[in-house]
Amino acid sequence: MAHNEKPTALIMIFGATGDLANRKLFPSLYNLYAKGQLDKFAVVGVARRSLTNEEFQLRVKESVTEHGEAAANLDEFVSKFYYHSHDVTDSSSYIALGKLAEELDENYRLDGNRIFYLAMAPEFFGTIAEHLKKDKLTNVTGFKRLVIEKPFGHDLESAKVLNKQIRTAFSEDEIYRIDHYLGKEMVQNIEVIRFANAMFEPLWNNRYISNIQVTSSETLGVEERGRYYEKSGALRDMVQNHMLQMVSLLAMEPPIKLTTDEIRSEKVRVFRALRPIIGEEVNDYFVRGQYGQGSMNEKEVPAYRQEEMVDPDSNTETFVAGKLMIDNFRWAGVPFYIRTGKRMKAKSTKIVIQFKDIPMDLYYQREQTVNPNLLVIHIQPEEGITLHLNAKKSGQGTEATPVKLNYANKGIDGLNTPEAYEKLLYDSLRGDATNFTHWDEVALSWSFVDNISAVWENTNEHSFPNYESGSMGPEAADKLLKNDGFFWWPVTEIDVDNC
Ligand code: BG6
């Protein structure tokens, strides 16, 4: 579908009374509607509790008012929302939903197009997909698509089981696996920066790049998600998906065309080239951390082990730093360092590409060697690019001084805002799966991560908690780079706004 064509579909949101629907999906759908990007559509909210259509519409209205920018057409928007109280394991409930879907399809002339959006607990994904087929909701005259939230499984084995279940009802090209990082403006910009600029691509390899650092730090703790997080930890929650996805975009070869298949197949090749880290090697390549108590914004905050629904002896990591090696011609020898954690000093997602030192230091900066060139991609909260160069210091002499060329993408606040969901929802309605993860990517990233969790789950980390809330993680994460002669570029001092 061309970009200016308006999609037509019935959107069924499973988990319609949940947090994700309330905070992201309703406001995002409304934004699309307000921009005139939705044509004919209706929404069925599906969830367990019993609500009338009017009660549901009121919730949607409140969600948009609270989390979005409501305008006069809000009443007209919510009038297209319907509610179905549902039992995910009961066929009769699906049959009733199917009837409602048929009615709406006819009344709104939706061309038999259906989107099934699963915004709920993952343990039901498989059951729902199987019922959708068995109870004939997937018998459509138009398109049918399944949009599915993470986590996609808990490890490779469970992901395979889940995939098999959903594949009974949907083909791979009908499955849209969400990774909301792929909806972020500056994550989508990685490819453009790389492939639309003559000055970067020739240098984008092991001859000119010394290392790449990807940091996604959060200030929040585990909040009310202790039950989920205890079984997940930062490795499964952030590394398997968001962090590895960013690495694949940074490392992929230029696709021969900007089509979904071409881009995905280049990303898959990066995952295939990721050096597996097995057994004892994990300790050389990866560091785990767990936050202790500390102070954030001058307020005392509890340790992870004191959080609700968390085992007081928990071995779950809330921080991961790792060194990834991509064993191909372009990247041989270049470490990709990643780090992510909760309760860290700043909420920040940044990518730093550090170029190699120049061959001979003709200039000096206050008795130091000149700074390396850096390309910093600011993903959030600020969005932009900074290029760190060296120039002559004004005045007498030949002293060099660092200068920064800065591009700030103002006007968008990228903190997991509806914008990412808005883009992804729109893509799923238009049938563009480029910014969703293909099964091959999911499988390869699980097999990489499973090797690490296999070691961590079998050894208690006696140093936990090993970083203070409000810090940048455990010391061992700094050592990881120090051993290679590098250091983490501080995320706060290289902010776009400080330039
Ligand atoms: C989610 C994780 O996928 O990403 C959360 O489950 C995490 O634990 C969140 O907080 C971070 O997203 P963002 O967009 O705020 O960086």
Automatic annotation (TrEMBL):
Its Enzyme Commission number?
A: 1.1.1.49
Active-site feature positions: 242 (proton acceptor)
Q: Can you give the residue ranges of the Glucose-6-phosphate dehydrogenase NAD-binding domain? A: 12-189
Q: Which Pfam families does UniProt cross-reference here? A: G6PD_C, G6PD_N
Q: Which pathway does it serve?
A: Carbohydrate degradation; pentose phosphate pathway; D-ribulose 5-phosphate from D-glucose 6-phosphate (oxidative stage): step 1/3
Which reactions appear under catalytic activity for this entry? D-glucose 6-phosphate + NADP(+) = 6-phospho-D-glucono-1,5-lactone + NADPH + H(+)
What's this chain's function? Answer: Catalyzes the oxidation of glucose 6-phosphate to 6-phosphogluconolactone.
What is the name attached to this protein's record? Glucose-6-phosphate 1-dehydrogenase
Please name the source species. Mesobacillus stamsii
Q: Which gene codes for it? A: zwf
